[in-house]
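**Backbone shape codes:**
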Amino acid sequence: MIESYDMSDRRIRKVLIVGGGTAGWMAAATLSKLLKNNYCDIELVESETIGTVGVGEATIPQIGTFNRTLGIDENDFIRRTKATFKLGIEFENWGRIGDKYIHPFGPYGLDMDGVSFHAFFLKHHGEDYTVDTPEQYSLQAVAARQARFMRPVNAGNSPLSKIAYAFHFDATLYAKFLREEAESRGVARHEGMVVSVNQRPEDGFIRSVTLEDDRELEADLFIDCTGFRGLLIEGALQAGYHDWSHWLPADRAIAVPCGRVDPLIPYTRSIARDAGWQWRIPLQHRTGNGHVFSSHFTSVEAAQDILMNNLDAAPTAEPRYLRFLTGHRKSFWKKNCVALGLSAGFLEPLESTSIHLIQSGIAKLLQMFPDRDFSQVNIDRYNRVTTFEFERIRDFIILHYHATEREDSEFWRYVKNMEIPDYLADKIALFESYGRIFRENEELFNDTSWFSVMIGQRLRPRMYDPVAEVQSPQETAERIANIRSVIATSADHMPLHADFIEQNCKAPDLEGV
């Protein structure tokens, strides 16, 4: 029986987001859009004197859902953030030095007779993937190699009707863009540095934060977007932290931009190095670069030398240095505080999941949005499903390191031979049996993603799925050849990535670039 008290009396009256950057302004923009009719006041406090981690950001296709939810015009967003399009990620030197493969958005081929295309691919090719790789059956991968891009069009069953894509953008410009969106819908911004967090003595809930000029900001619900330090969730509420550095030992990053490089590729590059990996993110006006590495296996000086000696153009700023500890808060939501972004945890950006985890955290908060009673059963569910998502992304990232034949450095010998989580060990064992991959519950990465990395990094099943015998070898060969031909023809119809941007969404201040 529903209790008879006035529900509106228990409603959250004010949300205070502490910290700006990408996480803070994503939260502000979303809550101000979806909590309509003056449901509650939404305020954000940040300090211009505190820098953000934001560099060039790479995303995954779910970002499109976020932008559409906010009613953002995509071309305007791309111009304002000097963005480019992204069809996947290229991994170089991960299985062996010299290896390259693309983890594409969108599927490989086409499932046939109710059986996964992956099974027919394995049946048809045996163990030889050197001439005819899975990439030839992905429109996104073929287009990426040719530096082509277009949005999906209404073309019936053509692959051109189902092009999945994401973006690369300047994170600082993205936060500014979202700030304008949020403020236009009434979000109030406070400038100032938080110097103390004030808790209610009776239950430890956060009552307010105090700024350096002695202003005190009260709220019912607090969202911690203060970055690695977790000023509220950890500093005040002491949520605790799950340390995953024994599986993911990288704990440092150096980031530096350089000039734009042509052709303008529609994919992120991830190049494995001796003790980590280097990213390259193409934007309209520059290239974002960084080196993620483990300080236990190399020095900062050596890592910086690798980065600076492997830029595609002259650097345009001084390098920036970041320290992190891979893992997550033991409680993402504790009492009346929810942590988002780096305050919640950190998974290195190998598969571009940082923005997604912010987006997902906001969506889960809205699904379980509290009243002022803060029902613990809802808080527990939020923490449980968020932990599951972090763990599954963690396992997928560990796969990249563990599934390697490299033994040329202490770092690679360690990650190749380390013990791995049971969930990941089970995934690998299932694949090594019959090439089978199962997507569990609502884990982020699907069978295409796992297949891409496993095959790309030289994991090989002992046998293909026996259900693939529903087709004769001749029929399989003919249908696979037809799929490859359709993919190649479709890619030929796509314009160059740079031309598409020039005609549709070029940043206004890039004349001559």
